[in-house]
Amino acid sequence: MINRIIIIGILLLISFTGISQDQVLETPVTYKTKDIELYDALNELSEMVGYTFSYNADLIPANKTIKANFKNEELQLVLDNLLNDTTLSYQVVEKQIVIYKKNKLNNLAALHKEFKDSSYQITIHGKVIDQITEEPLAYSNVSILGKSIGTVTNEDGEFIFKIPAEYLPSNLAISFVGYKNAIIPISELSSNTNIIYLQRSTINLQEVVIRYVEPKSLIKEAVEKIPENYSTQDNIYTVFYREIIQRNGDYAAVSEAVLNVFKSPYTNYHSDHIRLLKSRKNIDYSIMDTIFFKLKGGLRASLYLDIIKNSISFIDLDKLDLYDYKMANIVKFDNGTAYEIEFEPLFYLKDESFRGKIYIDTETSAIKAVEFEIEPSAISKMTQELVVKKNWRLKVKPVSAKYRVSYRSLDGILHLNLVRGELDFKVNNRKRLFADDYKTIFEFAVNDIDTTNVDRFNRKEIINTEKVFIDQENEYDAEFWGEYNFIKPDEPLEEALVRIAKNLDKLED
Question: Where in the chain is the domain with CATH 2.60.40.1120?
């Protein structure tokens, strides 16, 4: 069975490799079809020229039935006829043909004309969803193409992205595993919420070359190539950090911070350090019931879960024989493809029983992301590792612990992008008949990477990552929080904080 599963491996061949970016819109195209949806027609043209179309969903009637009969016509003319909209224009960015609306009155470019100060912040609101099912794509990467700043979407595929006005001429890049990247000119985005559709990508076996690959060999190669693929110098990350505690689906506590992280090279064992810039927190004691119940997660876990720097058992070369690895798929990832490798422990491993998926770039052999959880049979034995404090009246039972770690490229070098943990617990209070469901979520999202102005932090500035984050003292600064990117929670954060603050006011009264 293992031998039958192991035989998959794919390297993409690109059509029209001789066409440059400047020439692609002038490429002669012969295309004939009838009674086909516009969405399918664009996909067929995409396969013909080797470039993907990117566009906002509200620009194009994708379900419109069209007919086409073109013989050696330039691609731009073909698009003009199919779209039949003189307000649309095209821009070629890398392997994307971006379709956008020119001279739109309510776009960010028009809005920005009112501001002359280059330090002005532009706020982009958006939601990323599947083009066919319209399901939200949680934790999609959102960034400025070729720049060091970015954010991620929340569980509902929503994001709020604040960028300096100087990036207005740049392009927004959105990516999600298994989907084609979307690239959209920032100046043409709406000042309202932008719905961004991503197109699921399938690998056409007629366009690939198959070679033999073995999952453990891929993992070994990925580990050996860490010095080639990941940063070998000191960096300063600007990070948005959030901890959320929910009780029975309601927000019980929200704590957030903007941090600087001194990130040492991936090629040594020096520690990473955190400097707290600003933080804020709100606790609804009426929902929380007792502050003596606190959950481990936090800053120490976020640093530890950088699995490339702190090798975890399922990519530890000395422990690979403890796991079963299977080649599951080849998927689109950023601008390339990645091997999707599933793994699970062969037997119970104390403190190391994990199952999940590893995504390894097919070209560079770099680990781009991992999604894993504590094996269900092991979770109940890890209460002491997952719970920091509890009231003696409480009986706490861990139900699940899931993690997601991803990396993004800057000038061809990979850096930590996102660490996310989600832990669920059943909590029995000796004074109550029914148990409560508690969930804690921590999100550690790298917004900016400074590779030049890098100095070690003063010892007095470094915060203790061992402490429970919500216990740390902070002074709320309303003006400060306007500058920084944050992960939009399932409930708009502003509404959650206002609601919690009102409850606090009632208790104080």
Answer: 10-198
Are the C-beta atoms of residues 105 and 87 closer than 8 Å to each other?
no
Mean pLDDT, the chain, rounded, equals: 79
Q: How far apart, in whole angstroms, are the C-alpha atoms of residue 331 and residue 306?
A: 23
Distance in angstroms (rounded) separating the CA atoms of residues 161 and 159:
6
For the record, the structure tokens of 284 come out as 């609804």
Is-contact 121 483, C-beta < 8 A? yes
Six-digit token pair at 123? Answer: 């706020």
**Cα distance between residue 330 and residue 253, in whole Å:** 40
Alpha-carbon torsion, ordered 34, 35, 39, 42, to 10 deg: 0
CA-angle at 487, arms to 485 and 490, nearest 5°? 145
β-pairing verdict for 336-345 and 354-361: antiparallel
Write out the E strands in 165-227.
171-175, 182-185, 194-198, 208-210
Fold of 10-198: Immunoglobulin-like (2.60.40)
The Cα–Cα gap between 151 and 458 comes to 28
CB 357 within 8 A of CB 371: yes
- Please state, in angstroms and rounded to a whole number, the distance separating the CA atoms of residues 43 and 360: 26
CA–CA distance, 423 with 421 (Å, rounded to integer)? 7
pTM for the whole thing? 0.77
CA–CA dist 108, 103 (Å, integer): 11
Helix (H) or strand (E) holding 224: helix 215-224
Question: What single-letter DSSP state applies at residue 488?
Answer: P
The per-residue pLDDT for 5 is: 23
Q: What is the pLDDT of residues 65-122, one digit of tens each?
A: 888 888 888 888 888 888 888 888 888 877 788 887 765 545 666 655 555 455 578 8
